[in-house]
């Protein structure tokens, strides 16, 4: 597997691990630690690898952290009998990870699974969150009202082997490749390294059991949507939406409702799919740099 290197002009990306509750949490880190921090939270079936191109584009101005969740990427992947794979538990571990690095203020970039992880953290620690960047990450029922989620609902209602069986093809190569290719403008712009990297993680012994647990736990997210929406309305975190509008998992219908609750919202639908960074990384980086420069105070400005 190959990983794209930072350009010679970009700050170095470092590949590190932190011990959190006896788990090794792998993370990518770049930029000056005295600069405002951006925490990048990945989706399924990916890892911090999905941010490999974005990190150098942000690190010249910001301190960037991108962790892998337990069971994903290069972090520890204990068995389902040794660790509870749920969004509550993953969010707890990620919050503990940030505390272990003494990161007290940050912006959160959330995509796919990153949304229920990040919104749990943000709504529990609103004083720490400087802004939110949402890329195909759901917080509204409208985002789940589509054909992709129909096979999940029986499993959420009854966690049986019979109800879980229709979901298992989503752990195979065709489905992983489908996530990367569907809705993009040009499939030749999508590096196969990305979906092959993700599939290698899925194919590790025991990992598909882990992912099935996460699929079941996804059913715990929708009941929390009202809480997250109340957090948006009450605390009004500045939010940038950069959403691949052709995504068939989280279509644009899930992006529109954010307009109801956020007053300081910078809203962009992009002509691409679920993993928008694969095709529109430069566009997203530009929008993020412009947005963050307006809403996140720099240490230099604060000192003056």
What's the CATH topology name? Rossmann fold
Mind telling me the C-alpha Rg?
Answer: 18 Å
Count of distinct strands: 8
CATH class wording: Alpha Beta
Low-confidence stretches: 1-7, 300-304
Shape from CA axes? Answer: globular
- With strands numbered from the N-terminus, the spatial order across the biggest sheet is 1-2-4-3-5-6-7-8
Roughly how many Å apart are the termini? Answer: 46 Å
CATH-level-2 architecture: 3-Layer(aba) Sandwich
Query: DSSP strand (E) fraction?
Result: 15-25%
Integer tally of domains: 1
CATH homologous superfamily annotation: Alpha/Beta hydrolase fold, catalytic domain
Q: What helical percentage do the residues reach?
A: 25-40%
Order of helices and strands: EEEHEHEHEHHHHHHEHEHH
Average pLDDT level: 95
Main beta-sheet annotation: 8 strands, mixed
Describe the structure.
The structure is a single chain. The protein is α/β, with parallel strands linked by helices and 304 residues long. The protein has a single domain (14-295), classed as Rossmann fold (3-Layer(aba) Sandwich). It is 36% helix and 16% strand. It is built from twelve helices and eight strands. It has an eight-stranded mixed beta sheet with strand order 1-2-4-3-5-6-7-8, with helices on both faces. Helix 3 packs across helix 9. It is globular and about 55 Å long.
